[in-house]
TrEMBL record:
Keyword field contains Zinc: no
GO molecular function: dynein intermediate chain binding; dynein light intermediate chain binding
Residues of the Dynein heavy chain coiled coil stalk domain: 2-176
Protein name: Dynein heavy chain 8, axonemal
Organism listed in the record: Antrostomus carolinensis
GO annotation terms (biological process): microtubule-based movement
Keywords recorded for this protein, A-Z: Coiled coil
Record-level GO cellular component terms: axonemal dynein complex
Keyword Coiled coil among UniProt keywords: yes
Length: 209
């Protein structure tokens, strides 16, 4: 209930020399208390006159802050929802990218296999003619195998003690003529060394000699 007019009315008393707490104590203790109270109320009014607008502004700002916090909470909630949606979409995107990379890797592996297979087929196609010819030769060799083995065993069994000329006489003039007479197929100009000994053995014998 203190106002500015009340404080102005008190000023003449405050300006009196004997309006002090010490003087009031000398006169009467109750008067000293009243004197001190009036001074304190005047000071309180001066301070409160500056504090009240600050309090009002603080209350207003607190209201603004409350509204702002509510809006922030709402915005944060919306942000959290959007972030959750983004996380789901990101997870789907990551899964799709992984699947894409797996498919690309599989495609690259398949492409390399196809290239290797094509290269192998191209390489084998060049061997087809030779294999076909060798197959025919193998069939012919199988047909002549009995006669060739018969000549080789005869050579091993009987020609050892004789010289080269007599061996040739036995092999070419007698035995091959006998084979033809009995219609037993054999290889013309049969190479006994290649028939009886493998190439590494021949090489070791030559080098050892």
């Amino acid at each position: 209930s203190i106002n500015e007019e009340t404080v102005e009315l008190l000023q003449p008393y405050f300006n009196m020399e004997d309006y002090t707490l010490e003087y009031g104590k000398k006169v009467c203790g109750n008067a000293a208390g009243l004197l001190s109270w009036t001074q304190a109320m005047a000071i309180f009014y001066g301070v409160n006159r500056e504090v009240l607008p600050l309090k009002a502004n603080l209350a207003k700002q607190e209201g603004y802050l409350k509204i702002a916090n509510a809006e922030l909470a709402k915005a944060q909630e919306a942000l959290d929802e959007k972030q959750a949606e983004l996380d789901k979409v990101q997870a789907k995107f990551d899964g799709a990218m992984k699947e894409k990379m797996d498919l690309l890797n599989d495609a690259e592996t398949c492409r390399r296999k196809m290239q290797a297979a094509s290269a192998l087929i191209d390489g084998l196609s060049g061997e087809k003619v030779r294999w076909t010819q060798q197959s025919k030769e193998f069939k012919s060799q199988i047909n002549r195998l009995v006669g060739d083995v018969l000549l080789c065993t005869g050579f091993l069994s009987y020609c050892g003690p004789f010289n080269q000329n007599f061996r040739k006489l036995l092999l070419k003039d007698l035995w091959e003529a006998e084979m033809r007479a009995h219609k037993i197929p054999f290889s013309e100009n049969l190479n006994l060394i290649s028939m009886l000994v493998d190439p590494p053995t021949v090489s070791s014998l030559v080098l050892g000699g």
